[in-house]
Design goal:
- The chain is α/β, with parallel strands linked by helices.
- Helix content is about 40%, strand content about 15%.
- It contains 14 helices and 13 strands.
- Strands 2-8-7-6-5-3-4 form a seven-stranded mixed sheet, with helices on both faces. A four-stranded antiparallel sheet has the order 9-10-13-12. A two-stranded parallel ribbon has the order 1-11.
- It is globular.
- The two termini are about 20 Å apart.
- The relative contact order is 0.17.
- Bound molecules: ligand TLP.
- The site of ligand TLP has 15 residues, from helix 3.
- Ligand TLP binds next to helix 3.
């Protein structure tokens, strides 16, 4: 199988497995696991924040951010196709008791003027605007990099109004790799950042939230309330540390492979790449081949290729550590055959 469903399918490297085997562990709820402490310190330093918290997943990180920033009844502004809005089971509403309000973006970037216009005035009828969320790279926009300038402009609006900004940086290091802008620079345009260790960076489990020391102290309590206070967690934190310190540079290979996939797909009549490929995600429209996404995916599966539907006629392919350039060429050959 050539699995292009997501970069979440990457398996831990032999080095990560070995580290998990050998690592010295302690009880993290007592703050005694050396690997977790090392990972959190490293992540905080890398992003230029006071503190960091190791959490089980990107979804948990985003939800802890919403719970820590907001009060029930608040409104959260976010892009119309944000992961937080589309793919987290409405957990913001179910858990934090907040109301999401979406703003249609352009390749994942919200217009700062629209964000300003959406901030609620002080009026007894309205919710308080409790949080603004930005996503970078933007998954549903095909791995688009949201520019630092756009993030700066949104952060400006947020500060004018005393509203915190949370960055869903599940694939922040893909944005860093593609743009040359550092993680610290992106993180400086948000109060809190969540990024995933378990996507292109290859760790088996885990995400990080970074922010001020007081925010992280409150977030730690929310993590505990959600049952996310783990014990001898070094067995997953140590692979996470390897992901963060050794796996960032290789993301460029995934981006090259995504471009190869996109260029080759565009040469197959009936298939069309929907948007520019900036990172490791390729959205392919199959309507011209007279198929729905599901039909195309069924045919792909028969050929041993996996991808996911991203719309009626849109299929998403994600390149990652466990697919080689050869695999991409093979996948293309199968697509040609199907067409
Ligand atoms: N995205 C997954 C699916 O949930 C769609 C994927 O395969 O892309 N933020 C963004 C931008 C994400 O893309 C994801 C995962 C998350 C948050 C949630 O991370 P996890 O899966 O660790 O909860």
């Amino acid at each position: 199988m050539i699995d292009l469903r997501s970069d979440t399918v990457t398996r831990p490297t032999p080095g990560m497995r070995q580290a998990a085997f050998e690592v010295e562990v302690g009880d993290d709820v007592y703050g005694e696991d050396p690997s977790v402490l090392k990972l959190e310190e490293t992540a905080a330093r890398l992003l230029g924040k006071e503190a960091a918290l190791f959490v089980t997943s990107g979804t948990q990180g985003n939800q802890i951010a919403a719970l820590t920033h907001c009060q029930p009844g608040d409104e959260v502004l976010l892009e119309a196709n944000a992961h937080l809005f589309l793919y987290e089971g409405a957990s913001m509403s179910a858990l934090a008791g907040v109301q999401p309000r979406t703003i249609e973006g352009d390749r994942g970037a919200m217009d700062p003027n629209k964000v300003r216009a959406a901030v609620r005035p002080d009026d007894i009828h309205f919710p308080e605007t409790g949080l603004i969320c930005v996503e970078n790279t933007h998954n549903k926009a095909g791995g688009a990099v949201v520019s630092l300038g756009n993030m700066q402009a949104i952060y400006e609006v947020a500060r004018e109004n005393g509203i915190p900004v949370h960055l869903d940086g599940a694939r922040l290091f893909n944005a860093v790799t593609a743009s040359g802008v550092s993680a610290k620079q992106y993180a400086s345009q948000a109060d809190t950042v969540q990024f995933c260790l378990s996507k292109g960076l290859g760790a088996p489990v885990g995400s990080i939230i970074t922010g001020s020391a007081s925010f992280i102290a409150r977030a730690r309590k929310w993590r505990k309330r959600l049952g996310g206070g783990l014990r001898q967690v070094g067995v997953i934190a140590e692979p996470g540390y390897i992901a963060l310190t050794q796996m960032v540079d290789r993301l460029a290979d995934d981006h090259d492979n995504a471009r190869l996939l996109a260029d080759s797909v565009n040469q197959i009549a009936g298939l069309r790449v929907e948007c520019p490929v900036e990172t490791n995600i390729v959205l392919v429209n199959v309507e011209g081949a007279g198929m729905t996404a599901e039909q195309f995916l069924d045919e792909l599966k028969k050929e041993g290729i996996l991808a996911v539907p991203f719309g009626t006629h849109t299929v998403r392919f994600v390149t990652h550590f466990d697919v080689s350039r050869e695999d991409i060429k093979e996948a293309i050959d199968h697509m040609r055959k199907i067409i």
